[in-house]
Prior knowledge:
Blueprint: E1 8-14, H1 26-41, E2 50-53, H2 63-71, E3 77-80, H3 87-100, E4 106-113, E5 127-128, E6 131-132, H4 138-143, H5 151-166, H6 170-184, H7 199-204, E7 207-209, E8 212-213, E9 223-230, H8 232-235, E10 243-252, H9 268-279, E11 288-291, H10 296-305, H11 314-320, H12 336-339, H13 345-360, E12 373-380, E13 385-392
Parallel strand pairs: 2-3, 2-4, 11-12
Antiparallel strand pairs: 1-9, 1-10, 4-9, 5-6, 7-8, 10-13, 12-13
Amino acid sequence: MAMRGRGAVVGVGELKPTRETPGETTLSLMAKAGLAAIDDAGLSFSDIDGMVCHPIGGVSMLTPSTVSELMGLKLNFAEVVDLGGATGAGMIWRAVAAIEAGMCQAVVCITGSSRRPRTPRAGGAKTAGGWSMPDRSAFSEFEVPYGNVGANVGYAMIANRYLHEYGATPEQLAKVAVHQRDNANQNPDAIFYGQPITVDDVLSSPMIADPLHMLEIVMPAGGAAALVVVGPELAQKLPNRPAWLLGAGEQVTHKTITYAPSLTDTAIQASARRAFDQAGVNPAQIGLASVYDCYTITVLLTLEDSGFTPKGTGGRFIEEHDMRWNGDFPVNTHGGQLSFGQPGIAGGMSHVTEAVRQIQGRAGARQVPDLELAFVNGNGGILSEQVSLIFGTER
């Protein structure tokens, strides 16, 4: 089913990320963001008849009913999306599809994560590298015992392979972090608001997993974000300018990096191509790229595989363009997860909320002038799960 003009985002609710969330649970944060999004959309509780959420720690089953009960919603459509960092983007096109199918008229898509100080483990199941091993997946059986756990290791392997094949420079990768920090300095909700950095700062920060420095790696946080999606008829009656979904694409290729088809050619190629084909536009027409940025190398690969620059030229593309909100190629104008923060699954949703705000003309000091089209990419796992979206001001 083509997505173009079948639905729009009309409400945004997002909590400011914080390093810790004392007194909050993931459920309480999600409920707050969801209620804020409904209020922002100008809708009442009785208007909301659909919800999309994600798996929640401590809720082993019946997740949608758990969340809806807490919020006081009665639903005709309920869905769980489990695509890691691509979950937020994946929620949007599923909500539009449900509306188009006549299942519901207004869907709230909710993400969130609480965060508490780390404490030493006391007893419990044996773990390797902090990962419990209750299953017998390839990851648990062949990677965990040898220490290949956590995203840092996988993305460092990807970065090393890319640098070997195509010769991008550390300075080019560092520029991604610097320009996103500049964007964060226009966003009071960003964790690193008011803390500019330079390329030298990035390259002199501690090496975490060669070749990735600390300032090239995402900042974990707690928080929540939600969006309200409605159909065309309702969208045109509400106070906010609709952010129309024009195209969507999705592809999943692997879970563990051992089984990745390639370390430098990603599933983004397929998901982005489908999104652009559905929207009937091309990368040259996009005014904002709001793309997952768990690491600087992720941004470079996404720009290449989405079609903004040919394979192998990403480093030069970054070097030649200004990626700040008022530059010639704005990228992650909210600061990205590198500088806005990564509140769990809501970190991936932040790229969607930012694109929506920008399309609606509600981004404040960082508003991209005359913006008509925005590209979003969500990335789950270690470049494992990809969802691409295109939003526009017109259907």
